[in-house]
Amino acid sequence: MSEQTTPTRTIPARIAALLHTVRILLGYGRHLAETAPHRSASTDFNAVAACFGTGRLGAILAHLQRGILRATALERVLLARAARGRDIGCVAPSERASATAYQAATSADLPAGAADQPDVPPSTASAGQPAAAQVARKAARRSRPAGWNDPELFMPTLEELEAQVRRRPLGRTLVDICLDLAVVPGFCTGAFWNELIDSIRGYGGSVAPLMQEKLRREEAFSKEQDRTMGSNWDWLEMGREALRRVLGSFIGEATDAAFDPGAQPCAVTAAVATVPS
């Protein structure tokens, strides 16, 4: 009797590219979650804590856990789709608007070689949507319990996050992952930051909320430091090499083969997700 083999397919090109991005984020999130408990007492760790908006280790670890779950959910959805031989399509933004203020606020943080182009402002996200749909979403938001978006209070399950991935643009999920993992330009290589923002924009997301939240968190962390005796403010002056030492390496520097799925076959039965995409 001849041995039966599981049919395989090569992962479609766009899914492979997005998986590359997602797996680098997963690797960073897992590394930070593993090392943060041991390194949080160091004053250098404030450079990382500032990007979470707090030095409370419990809050940082909760965001990291949710970010890892989000990235895992996105990976599973992408693999399930690839197993059926279906690629994903890019979503071209309907309009581009100037963002001079945004660029001025963030250009100093951009790593060498990173793109410095205006992003679609959040106000355009709802343009052209039916009024009834917008009213329904507003009603749903009003019904949410207090603290619904705080991972210390409400930690979603992997299955819930997979369902969320399927009903939203993939770029929005990438933004949420970056917010939970506190991914900022200064933590990334220029090439990876470009790859990340291209993926966010190409799949229906916007980088603007990510950068706005970065500024808000830095302000919140500064206020927290003002209330803490003996606070250290050296994190405000840390250069790229100092940040590299704090992080271990910049996001995107790792060359693990697991980050490069393009040439890997995709077993039809291997990519298991809870609901078909």
Brief synopsis:
The protein has 277 residues and is mostly helical. The protein is 50% helix and 2% strand. The chain has one domain.
Overview of this protein structure:
With 277 residues, this protein is an all-alpha fold. The protein has one domain (8-94, 101-122, 155-267). The chain contains ten helices and two strands. It has helices spanning 13-39, 46-49, 57-83, 100-106, 131-142, 158-167, 170-181, 190-202, 208-226, 240-247, and strands at residues 8-10, 265-267. It has a two-stranded antiparallel ribbon. Helix 1 (13-39) packs antiparallel against helix 3 and helix 7 (170-181) runs parallel beside helix 9 (208-226). The longest helix has 27 residues, at 13-39. The two termini are 36 Å apart. Mean pLDDT is 78; it is low at 1-6, 94-110, 112-127 and 267-277.
How much of the residues is beta strand, in percent? under 5%
Mean pLDDT: 78
Residue share in helix: 40-55%
Uncertain parts: 1-6, 94-110, 112-127, 267-277
What is the strand and helix layout of this fold?
Blueprint lengths: L7 E3 L2 H27 L6 H4 L7 H27 L16 H7 L24 H12 L15 H10 L2 H12 L8 H13 L5 H19 L13 H8 L17 E3 L10
Helix pairs in contact: 1-3, 1-7, 3-6, 3-7, 7-8, 7-9
Features:
single chain; about 280 residues; two-stranded antiparallel sheet; 2 strands; disordered N terminus; disordered C terminus
